[in-house]
Known about the structure:
By secondary structure, chain A is of the alpha/beta class. Chain A is 31% helix and 18% strand. In chain A, strands 9-8-7-10-11-12-13-14 form an eight-stranded mixed β-sheet, sandwiched between helices. Chain A starts with a strand and ends in an 8-residue tail after the last helix. Chain B has helices at 6-19, 61-73, 94-98; strands spanning 2-4, 25-33, 36-45, 56-59, 77-86, 105-112, 115-124, 131-134, 136-137. The two termini of chain B are 20 Å apart.
Amino acid sequence: MAKILIPTALRQFTEQSDAVEVSGATVAEALNALTARFPEIKKNLFNDQGKLRSFVNVYVNDEDIRYLDKSDTKLEGSEIVSIVPSIAGGTTAVEEQAPALTNDEIARFSRHLILPEVGMQGQTKLKHAKVAMIGAGGLGAPLGLYLAAAGVGRIGLVDFDVVDVSNLQRQVIHGTSDIGRKKLDSAADRMTDINPNIRIDKFDTGLTSENALEILRDYDIVVDGTDNFPTRYLVNDACVILKKPNVYGSIFRFEGQATVFAYEDGPCYRCLYPEPPPPGLVPSCAEGGVLGILPGVIGVIQATEAVKIILGIGETLKGRLLLYDALGMKFRELKLRRDKDCPVCGDHPTVTKLIDYQQFCGIKPMSNEAPAVSGVIDAIELKQKIDRGDKFVLLDVREPHEYQIARIPGSILIPLGDLPKRLSELDKNADIVAQCKSGGRSQKAVDLLKQNGFQNVRNMTGGITAWSDKVDPSVPKY
Amino acid sequence: MIEIEANPWQTMVLHAERLYPHECCGAMLGHSQGANKIVTEAVPLENAYAGKQHDRYELRPEDLLAADKAARARGLDLIGIFHSHPDCDAYFSETDLKNSCPWYSFVVLSIQNGKFDHANSFLPDLDQTAAEPEEMIWPRS
């Protein structure tokens, strides 16, 4: 005889017995014997079709019969059979609303579906997930490719840029034939080609304090693929305000970082960096260079984190800053904690709405027309100056490897970093024009020289890039 | 009617507040006589839901089985299940109902900003189509 333990609530049907001994060679027979003896209990265990109710689990000793032979599980007579309901709940009803996968999708995602951690439930979650991607550049390229391929149902792309030949070394979502096209269009075409079932929302704009909340509100997860500080702080603050996880990545030269901010009880970007660095201190990829493969690694890590968050599996990078060094081929990680005094996500936040991030990062607003200030000279004027045979010093402050790529004839090279200790090589009364790649570093050189008593120093606006554009197209742009 | 004694009540509230902003869950043990139940012990159980636990919970049947065994061993009955709703009212949601069972009292604790706010108890029907509120007594001090 097997012993069936009776849940409290059902004892009203078993004359208050908390255990009933029944005979039966299988679980089905034992349960039939139970219901034959106590007919009232039947509707508690079986539905109108005679099937076990969905919430009823049967255990033989300590094993769920679903993992044995179900109702046909054999009983020898000394087992203890327990009836245990499955219980769950919550305040949202996600799965109930989710339409099932189509047969095409089942075929497409078969390698996901046979992973128990993904399965039909997980793939359906991916299908109903909404991810916002900020930027369709270096990080956005692998992100867009893999999120589309993984079956993320709706992807919002935010980008205002156009594909340039210098992008192709790393932005593998775009091709040579896309040069001059909007990155949005180029990326969306490629993603739709990979997976035609997804919806792509294109936002042909930069993310701003005015539009960020409106754009990001509709998405579950935000993936930040931008490379400048104002947008990074903007994305961070918007994610904290909207309570959306911010999958962060950044790249520079040969090193990258990734983590997940503003997720659950984890830290945000401002817990790590409360204040932006002074403008110009950290060069952008355009100034400092980047190994083309690097954003591939970091973007794929971000895509992995986004997919894990959607599926609710594994351990995310929340609270861990992953550091990747391509040259040493090393991964390290730093622990991050939420700062209870953080101005955005702390216990008493002082930043509760979006601010002016250009100003926060110390960047002056760009005007369309060059300011009419003395102390600058543009490419055309420089050409005229050279042609007139003026006696002056053209000071190139770029790095030696840049000087090897292209130079303006007659220039002398003193990299910006070396300038303070090489001031003596320059004549304080000389007519000096400082020049770099696009005008940023040379402005710093001008400031430095002026502070050191140089009287007649001007910055060449637009740098050697403008020289190539306006004066000599045979000088390569890089 | 379900009455919860001070000790188990404290256990339930502490468990719910500690797991905030996640949903918590657990079992309530005690005695019942017809529709009158008294909870003398509360057993916090692990929320086994595999996704974000802000708004979902799942009880492992094995854990429930163990709680039931432990109750029987001490002459108690498993009479109810409790779970929390972080930053949300203590109502019986569609998801709660669909994944419930008619054999137990379901106590929902509303935790607002990390602190207990209010609670309700529900009795789901056999087909999980409706749940009726159950009168609940708990130490108010």
